[in-house]
Amino acid sequence: MKHYLIVSEKEWNQHLSQTLQKKIxxxxxxIKHKQDFELTKLAQIKPDKIFIPHWSYIIPPxxxxxxxxxxxHMTDLPYGRGGSPLQNLIVRGHKNTKISALRVVKxxxxxxxxxxxxxxxxxxxxxxxxxxxxVIEEMIVEIITHELVPTTQQGQPTVxxxxxxxxxxxxxxxxxxxxxxxxxxxxxxxxxxxxxxTKYFKxxxxxxxxxxxxxxxxxxxxxxxxx
Length: 227
Known about the structure:
This protein is of the alpha/beta class. It contains six helices and eleven strands. It is elongated and about 60 Å long.
């Protein structure tokens, strides 16, 4: 029987090994901690394919050179290679994107493509990630059942720069829709929130709602500013 492995540290992806078990008869395993994603552990599992929906760490060469690793990237590759794809898409005004399933190689997000699926960018980051998890589940089923063979990326690459927590500072934004986008695109588990700082305090925003009267209602967490 085939053995497939899901690798993700994010809560919204950790149901995949269980739900996929109901759709594809195989052995399914989950790795969610960086220290467990190493050759000794993989030698025990002996996965036929490794599916990586969301992983914040560099995948070591000894892993992707010995196992077929499929990573899922939230852009229409080769557009948007690099870090923070969701946030970089939203700040550029995109309302929709594609999830690309690709083979892991040495160059970041440059591997051959198995398939792509559409994804809406409406809602908070967490809502988008939950939506993407369902799409990724469908993609994994398709890759396995149709035994998809990846093909070379086509087009000129566009590279995104990974965003830093300080990039969430909204103090210089001049438009209301920009503020709304900043709040929602960072509103997810373990993401640094969009914020504004005063002389003494830091205000972090979440759960934003853009109203018809062109106002925003949001939750705010106020803490003393670090010195």
